[in-house]
């Protein structure tokens, strides 16, 4: 489970992901306008404070937020697939002779990482998770 999932997404990272996924420039501009103009106010003793700009995160209850969060989480999927493709991480084998290897499963803000028991896998996972946190703001 990502810690404070919606609150932590870095907007620049989200725009980079959309760029890598070939989202049209106009679409990305619209999303930036929706996300980057967010403001908030806090109730103190029942009275709202002045509005202040938000610098990261996705708004709870916004219909776009689940979709945008999935785009942000896609970065972890890409990193894990790259580690497996380069034989730096070995997934868990399922089945008999024609087995498949599963390295990770993702659903919404939940991620399950699966692999053989080895120090190489531990080091690879640590590297992936640190890199993903640095890029996305998610941990």
TrEMBL record:
Presence of the UniProt keyword ATP-binding in the record: no
Top-level taxon in the UniProt lineage: Eukaryota
Keywords: Kinase, Receptor, Transferase
UniProt keyword Aminoacyl-tRNA synthetase, yes or no: no
Domain Reverse transcriptase: 1-139
InterPro entries: DNA/RNA_pol_sf (IPR043502), Retrotransposon-Effector_Assoc (IPR052343), RT_dom (IPR000477)
Molecular function via GO: kinase activity
A Pfam family that the UniProt record links to this protein: RVT_1
Protein name per UniProt: Cysteine-rich receptor-like protein kinase
UniProt lineage: Eukaryota, Viridiplantae, Streptophyta, Embryophyta, Tracheophyta
């Amino acid at each position: 489970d990502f810690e404070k999932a919606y609150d932590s997404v870095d907007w620049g990272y989200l725009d980079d992901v959309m760029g890598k996924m070939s989202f049209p420039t106009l679409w990305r501009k619209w999303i930036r306008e929706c996300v980057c103009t967010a403001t908030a106010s806090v109730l103190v003793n029942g009275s709202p404070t002045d509005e202040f700009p938000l610098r990261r995160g996705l708004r709870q209850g916004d219909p776009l937020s689940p979709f945008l969060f999935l785009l942000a989480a896609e970065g972890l999927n890409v990193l894990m697939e790259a580690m497996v493709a380069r034989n730096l991480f070995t997934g868990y084998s399922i089945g008999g002779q024609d087995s498949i290897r599963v390295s990770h499963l993702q659903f919404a803000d939940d991620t399950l990482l699966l692999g053989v028991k080895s120090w190489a896998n531990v080091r690879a996972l640590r590297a992936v998770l640190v890199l993903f946190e640095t890029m996305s703001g998610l941990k």
